[in-house]
Amino acid sequence: MHFVEQKKQQNIEPPAELPPDLLPPSFRPNPAGMTDISTSTTCHETSLSAADSHLESGNKKIDEILDDIRNIQQEKRTFEQQLMQLEADMTIKNSEIRNLEVELNTLQATVIQLERQKGEAQRRLDDLDEQRNSLNDALNELVKRNEDDLQNINHLKSIIDNSDQVAKENERILNEKRTLLQTLTDEEMKLESKLQNDRRILQNLQHEQQDSEDFALKADDIVQQLRKQREFLMEKLEKLEQVVANGDQNYLVSNQDLMSMDDEFNLNK
């Protein structure tokens, strides 16, 4: 409970392994030399239980008390088994929650990275749009100048139609203009192709971002469900710990109550 409160209030992760003083007695490692003592004690208790099961005092009242004691001992053992099972289940659920939280953090980091990539791709697209607009303006200006030059050339041709040298020079200028125009046209086509490719990349990034966000939402729902299951297990565990710790012989739990607890726990699973 202390580690759970630390996680809720201070966001401190619980240790991967509990120290021995926080483990139930049945889970603690046996110190050197204590195994034989524990075994002999268990055998002794078993022999006593076996002896008690055949012991009859001849007094009905005493026999009823002995039966009650045996029933309470059996119920205590049942409680202890249930307590160990609940502790094991809680350990598994806590591990699942930690794994899902790590996966959720990874997905959130992926979404942030995709957002950055999306912004960078958008900036690149904006730059390419500006470059294309600039090239379009330059191309339009060049086309206009070329048209003006063609008009001038035609005018000059009409004036000095018999001058071969001037005609060749004009042809050379015209070819240069055509070459420059073709170069600009090729550059525009390359930029248009690059722009289309970057747009496809941006669309893929947007699809990946949407998939990551959907998965993160599903993972968050699973984490919420597991947290509710953990709260349910903690509540049942506290009740069983109180019963075992207090040794309340008057507090008897029927098999129907235990079955309802198991059914509710399995339903939450």
UniProtKB/TrEMBL annotation:
<feature type="compositionally biased region" description="Basic and acidic residues">
    <location>
        <begin position="1"/>
        <end position="10"/>
    </location>
</feature>
<keyword id="KW-0175">Coiled coil</keyword>
<feature type="coiled-coil region">
    <location>
        <begin position="174"/>
        <end position="250"/>
    </location>
</feature>
<feature type="compositionally biased region" description="Polar residues">
    <location>
        <begin position="36"/>
        <end position="50"/>
    </location>
</feature>
<feature type="region of interest" description="Disordered">
    <location>
        <begin position="1"/>
        <end position="55"/>
    </location>
</feature>
<feature type="compositionally biased region" description="Pro residues">
    <location>
        <begin position="16"/>
        <end position="28"/>
    </location>
</feature>
<protein>
    <submittedName>
        <fullName>Uncharacterized protein</fullName>
    </submittedName>
</protein>
<feature type="coiled-coil region">
    <location>
        <begin position="55"/>
        <end position="148"/>
    </location>
</feature>
